[in-house]
Structure formats: C-alpha cells, structure tokens
Specification:
The protein has helices spanning 24-28, 46-60, 71-81, 129-133, 156-167, 210-221, 233-237, 269-285; strands spanning 4-7, 10-13, 31-39, 42-43, 87-94, 114-121, 135-141, 172-177, 180-184, 188-193, 196-199, 225-228, 241-246, 250-257, 260-261. It has 2 domains: 4-122, Aminotransferase class 4, branched-chain amino acid transferase, N-terminal domain (D-amino Acid Aminotransferase, Chain A, domain 1), CATH 3.30.470; 129-285, D-amino Acid Aminotransferase, subunit A, domain 2 (D-amino Acid Aminotransferase, Chain A, domain 2, Alpha-Beta Barrel). The protein has 8 helices and 15 strands. Helix 6 (210-221) crosses helix 8. Bound molecules: N-(5'-phosphopyridoxyl)-D-alanine.
C-alpha cells in the first residue's frame, strides 16, 4: 500500500510527491532533518526534536518554514493516515530550490524552504532482538565535518561507517577523533564503570541527542553518577558496560568492540535497566 507523505503543505501518495532537481537539499546537502520515534501510535520526545530542528535551522540561517508551528499536527496526521503503531517519522527541511545551481544562498524572500515528512512502519521497534542480545561494533576514524551538532543530511561518511561495520560482520561503528570516541554513526556512545555513566561532553563534535538528554536525566534520578568527558576505545573495552542511544535504538547495549567483549559479553544490567526506564517514562509522556 502506498504511503501518504507530506510535501510543502500537501498530503500526497508517495509516488506523487516531487521535489525539484535544483533543490539545495539534493545538490548541496543543504538541509537538516529529524527522526522521531512512534510507539503505540504516539510520538516520543516530540518537543525535543522540534526544538533541535529550530536550532539546526538557525545555525545554518535556513528560514523557519511556515509549517513549523503545525509540525506536531502534521506528524500526528501522517501517523494516523498511515496507521503507524510503531515506527518513525522522518522530517527534512531544505533551503529550497532556487531553480538553478549556485553556491551562494538564494534570497529567502523568494525561495522558500522545502519541507518533507514521511513515516516508516517498524512493528515491534521497542522489542527488537538486538536490545536483548546487545550489538557488536568496530571503531573507525571520525572523518565528518566539524559541525556535527547540526543535524544535517550530510550522511555519506556515517553511511560508509555502517558499510565498514557490515563488512566486518558487526552492527555499527563508533567514531574516534584524536584518540577519543565521538559517537556512533547514528547514535550517542556511552560506557559504564561501576555506578558511573561516561559519555563525551556536548560540543560541536557530536549531535546533542534528544534521547541522550532524557537518558542522562533518568540515570541521575536513578542515583547513577554521570561523567561527561572523553573516553578511548581502550577504556571502553575495559569498562563494565557500554551502550548507545538514539530515537530509533532507544538504549541499546553494546557487547563487543573491535572483537573484544565488554564485561561478560552480554548486555549489562544497568544499560537494560536504563532502557526500561527510558521506554516507560517516554511512553508516559508520548503525544
Ligand atoms: N540519528 N548522533 C548521531 C550522529 C545521530 O545521527 C543520532 C540520531 C544521534 C542520536 O540522536 P537522537 O537521540 O536525538 O536520535 C546521535 C537518527 C536516529 C538517524 O539519523 O536516523
């Protein structure tokens, strides 16, 4: 069955939604995006994703689309018409189409941003086997640009990272810069030592994960300690537990890095407990 998608104010069957070949999202990756998960037909952490979208737009001087204040309603309508129980809503805003190729930004008075949203149905998103079994990862060099705090659609290097992981027979890769882990290809990275969660501090080096913010808050409420600092792959391999967070993975235990097992080689109790708390609390607050 064809999905209904949203494009610039219209709800359309997916094969009727067309964007210009001159759109700067297509030609220059001049676009930002958000991914919001849906559980039980409701949106998780929607307000956080909308706030980060606004920040990404501001950082790149892309004008706020007219539809900005209607985004919750548009998300809900797509979830409703597509009958999504569990899955994701993908949102992308580009600087629009000036009708030709030019490095210089077009005049925002005449060229409006392009706004696209679509849903992805993923039944059982919160009960995937990886969450029970944990994931294996490799480490790779972080070769992305220097403004990773802006959620742009420049995802070529993260895609290459996923392919390197696939070739190595594992699930994902953690990226390393100057000897310290930045983040996963599409998630934030953490280790646990004793009762302390260690994760890289927020800066332009990593995406400020919406799931990260919620999980650190819940961890504090659960009397865990938090150290926001750099850590190396060696420290991660020697840690008691490791995990990643994102809107699609929630809290996902990591059991092996570069072929070395973490702890007992099975998902750690604290990571699993954090996943439980995150899902429980986020579902309560879902809209
Ligand atoms: N990725 N770091 C990177 C590089 C990411 O791409 C993501 C999210 C995160 C986690 O952010 P959040 O908790 O707000 O989802 C961290 C999304 C899920 C994606 O690209 O599909």
């Amino acid at each position: 069955m064809s999905r209904t998608v949203y494009l610039n104010g219209e709800y359309l069957p997916e094969d009727e939604a067309k964007v210009s070949i001159f759109d700067r999202g297509f030609l220059m990756a001049d676009a930002v995006y958000e991914v919001t998960s849906v559980l039980g037909g409701k949106l998780i952490d929607f307000a956080g994703h909308q706030q980060r979208l606004e920040r990404s737009l501001n950082e790149l001087d892309i004008q706020k689309p007219d539809a900005f204040d209607d985004l919750l309603e548009i998300h809900r309508e797509l979830v409703r018409v597509n009958g999504i129980e569990d899955g994701l809503v993908y949102l992308q805003v580009t600087r629009g189409s000036p009708g030709d190729r030019d490095f210089v930004f077009p005049d925002p008075a005449t060229v409006k941003p392009t706004v696209v949203l679509f849903t992805q149905s993923m039944p059982g998103l919160a009960t995937r086997p990886e969450a029970r079994d944990g994931i294996k990862i490799i480490s790779i060099e972080d070769q992305r640009w220097a403004r990773r705090d802006i959620k742009t659609v420049q995802l070529l290097y993260p895609s290459m990272g996923k392919m390197m992981a696939k070739k190595a027979g594992v699930h994902d890769a953690w990226m390393v810069q100057d000897g310290a882990v930045t983040e996963g290809t599409s998630n934030n990275a953490y280790i646990i030592r004793g009762n302390t969660i260690i994760t890289r501090a927020l800066s332009q080096d990593i995406l400020h994960g919406i799931t990260r913010a919620a999980v650190l808050r819940f961890a504090q409420e659960a009397q865990m300690l938090i150290e926001e600092r750099d850590f190396t792959i060696e420290e991660a391999i020697g840690a008691d537990e490791a995990f990643v967070t994102s809107a699609s993975a929630f809290v996902m235990p990591v059991i092996e890095i570069d072929g070395s097992v973490i702890g007992d080689g099975v998902p750690g109790g604290r990571a699993l407990r954090l996943r439980e708390i995150y899902l429980e609390e986020s579902l309560k607050a879902a809209v």
